[in-house]
């Protein structure tokens, strides 16, 4: 309707203007046209009479004349005038006030327009034939009222015609516009839908539009809500302040599978390990700031020895600020719940890495039992009826529902750290309804990107009976409503690992010495868990492609790949390790010379400080995950580069690519494209590197982990306040 008006109004205005200008012109034209007719008619009449006329007309002649013109309905009267302008004879209809025309006829005739009370008239005067000087004039008086009538009709027809024209023009314009718009929208939709498929680029006409829309979406993925427009420097202190003011007395309980501190027995000594886990990297500073309790699986060999009788241990060990509560699992439980359902079922289900998910009923039983164990621990640890429970990840899809049964007033924020698949993919899970309804007992369910939220809503839409409000992004099942929102996770800023780091030159020197690299070598770094979703073998193949297509880098480039062993008892993980090692060996055999190797693969765990030093020493960081919820390595690299230097190569299938737009974005399935991106990164001017890195640093600094948590807590605070308002009074009336 709006679009119709947008087209119709200007068109109508234009056509109305034309009509307004054209209708008097039309009337004038009609007037002149018919007056000309009357004049010709008068001339014809006179010509037909003139032979029978002489200078002195007798009464009989006049009577004959009058009888001959009686049939002419537009002729009012006739009269005779002397050459001096005296009216000597006139017919009965001669208008009384009318005299002879003042001016003698020019070339024997004259036409004069006049107006009587009854309407417009025309007098036509013709010189009568004579032997000598003119003997007088014959004068006809014509009634012109019919011309007025016809002018009015002409005016009305003109307006009518233009109105019809305007209607048809508007209808045609709107139709054409609608069809064109529909075509454009379809083409842009297809362009956007194919965006991840390099084989189906958008058509050239819409390519730039699709690009703009994608950029806007990426910008939008930063989720700037009105409240976020007010720039706040998010720090541990501002988060504490937020908790105190917005969520007073809220008891914080964090739940995850992986624990933030692992106590291991190394040769009879207890050593504390920080796990290679994005979840822990992100959540630990938050929990330090908020205090409370973190419930996790005690997986370290010395974990039992390090807890009190309640299975509690205060952490961080050097400056305790919260309690870690450990849950003990049997080997069978770990096998079924963690390796089985979580990592052989849900992990490949949610990541597009073309590894077939395995769903075994026995694993599901363990998953349910372990979720129950954690839920019971949450309920047991809760000191209030409405704690703030932060449930982490795909290990605990059933926990929100189980907790809600015992603590109906709890505020449960669940964060899903990995992607959410589309409904087709999700439909293969035999326990899809249980998983969805388990999650929908959360007050808030968060994903990294809007795209994953949409996939989740579509899955709910497909498999559950509920009300979905897409405008507010909520799902209501029975009496409970869950807010589904994107909260792109981030890291601590400034990174704690930066403390005590040597300057960039110092880091470079140390790393080059450690790995025996000559000074002219340009260094790329890759850091991840040894996981098939990370695309490590493909990254190695990209190095091969670089050396094939840009041989100038042979002997001058090295990729140092750190891969922390992970879930190594699973076949798919063993396979990717073997594949990566084989590919690295083959490439090193092919190109290596004089002690130089293009790929150094180190499959062991490194701590945060070691990794930070590697980031600071490198020219490039390569993150080429086949699929990744966010990928915090990309953000950690950016945070480590306080010299504003270094190039980030980033997979388009990592959530981080929606925020770190200044990285060189690559398709990890396009080996040659990745090789070219490495070449581009190595060849980039220092100004370019600096400009890009500065923008990425601004992004990570502003949207840091405190911002991530702050947004969720603000949403939680709003929900709690609303629940408070809606709570019935003693008399049963809502406030
Ligand atoms: O990415 C999903 C995730 O659970 C992260 O949250 C964490 O960084 C990683 O996997 C670690 O996996 P795990 O705890 O199984 O070693």
Automatic annotation (TrEMBL):
TM spans (from-to): 156-176
InterPro entries: Glyco_trans_20
Swiss-Prot/TrEMBL keywords: Membrane, Transmembrane, Transmembrane helix
Molecular function via GO: alpha,alpha-trehalose-phosphate synthase (UDP-forming) activity
Top-level lineage group: Bacteria
Biological processes per GO annotation: trehalose biosynthetic process
Pfam family, any one: Glyco_transf_20
UniProt cross-references to CDD domains, sorted A to Z: GT20_TPS
Stated family: Belongs to the glycosyltransferase 20 family.
Protein name: Trehalose-6-phosphate synthase
Organism of origin: Telmatospirillum siberiense
